[in-house]
Amino acid sequence: MRKSGILLHITSLPSRYGVGTLEESGKFIRFLKSAKQSYWQILPVTPTDAHNSPYAAPSAFAGNVLFIDASDLCKRGYVSFEQVKACRGARGIDYDYARRNKEKLLRQAFCVFLKNEPPADYRDFCEQNSYWLKDYALFCAATEHFGASRSDWPDEGLRMHKAESVAKYSELLAEEAEYYVFCQYLFFSQWKHFRHTLSEEGIKLFGDIPMYVSYDSADVWAHPELFDLDEKGNPKNVAGVPPDYFSPDGQLWGNPLYDWERMKKSGYDWWMRRIEHCSRLFDVLRIDHFRAFDSYYAVPFGQKTAKFGRWKKGVGAELLEKAIKTFPELTIVAEDLGYIPQSVTELRKKLGIPGMKILQFAFDGGTDNPFLPQNYEKNCVAYLGTHDNDTTVGWWDSADESIRANAQKWCGVKDNPVRELMTALAESDADTVVFTMQDVAEKGGEYRMNRPGQAGGWSYMADSADLSAGNAKRLAALTEKTNRT
């Protein structure tokens, strides 16, 4: 079926908390309904790293507590309205402000929680998430206790996740670990309500997970046997991509790689639990760097660049076939951008998984460019650009004359590149098209979300004017005209 949606991460919702939260989701849901959209696409909802990237989390399962709805804490009796109001002072994106104030509010809520009986569903939540929750909570508590990342913890037994040390610190840090359990309970309780609201409005949630996890994560700490590590717990090889025209040194991501043989022996248990977890969070799941299932780039640990890595054979179709069969209600989408060998395309098509098309990539080369809208297959998700691209206004402003000439010749661009390219995208054969909120609001390049390979970013926040009735009406008209309602 022909559908469309909008990409806007939760941190980018208009907010006075420093980042967007679930508290502000209602207005955007109403905007989606008014614009006749079927999907809300977001970025990973796991905690972010020191650079605020949602693609380098300390857990593949935990939720980002910055998203927690402060007003809901007030309704639950954990904090006062005055305490909530005191957290609403930021103008635009300010992660430091958000972390500082949300931490203060959650600590206040936790003090009240400890003095009362837990909510009726609290123990059920702990049991349902026992596979990852205790390890994550202790990992966070130990990081706080030692004031250092895992590789600098002074207790070697705990650092290496030895049973005796884990038991010792589970007792020593019990209350602090419980705080992190409490925060996750709040996040997932609110998320359940959020999903229910979306479902009632007929809007599907389009989620996202990275291929890899951070070395400094509860997953690598608690399950070292699943990763390509040496006897000291250090990675043998790390993830990245090789040099290309845009990056002469390649990109050195630094994530530990999987030990696929060990994972296979366990029936891919960790991955299956991860996908099951995602099936409770999302209706559609985009897997970032999908090509690593086919082949992945391994850089020896300790290298300063990605120049000296080599490609290795991935796990292939077996894991994904099992996931698709086990969780048929979850639609999987492959992020298959960049240099993609034919074997990756064959794997994706074998599994029936849609890939991605980016219209901004369409105008160099000839009319056989696969990113041109007239060349799209139905089973794909098409974008003008994603969170990694410039806004279409910014892209057009910096495009050379040959790119502009081809866009005019092949997609009928004349007066308003954003609106005319949105129309070309919506008229394509792609079953699903997704517009960034920046393009819907016709924002300039200063509002782009991310610049790949550069630290920082993730700093776009929409404003209330972006969610105007006029923008919704214009998008609704395009959606109806192109039969995507």
UniProtKB/TrEMBL annotation:
Catalytic activity from the UniProt record: Transfers a segment of a (1->4)-alpha-D-glucan to a new position in an acceptor, which may be glucose or a (1->4)-alpha-D-glucan
Protein name as annotated: 4-alpha-glucanotransferase
Gene3D superfamilies: Glycosidases (3.20.20.80)
GO biological processes: carbohydrate metabolic process
SUPFAM superfamilies: (Trans)glycosidases
Superkingdom assignment: Bacteria
Pfam families in UniProt: Glyco_hydro_77 (PF02446)
PANTHER family: 4-ALPHA-GLUCANOTRANSFERASE DPE1, CHLOROPLASTIC/AMYLOPLASTIC, 4-ALPHA-GLUCANOTRANSFERASE DPE1, CHLOROPLASTIC_AMYLOPLASTIC
NCBIfam families recorded: malQ, PRK14508.1-3
EC number: 2.4.1.25
Family indicated by similarity: Belongs to the disproportionating enzyme family.
InterPro entries: GH, Glyco_hydro_77
Entry keyword set: Carbohydrate metabolism, Glycosyltransferase, Transferase
Gene expressing this chain: malQ
GO MF entries: 4-alpha-glucanotransferase activity
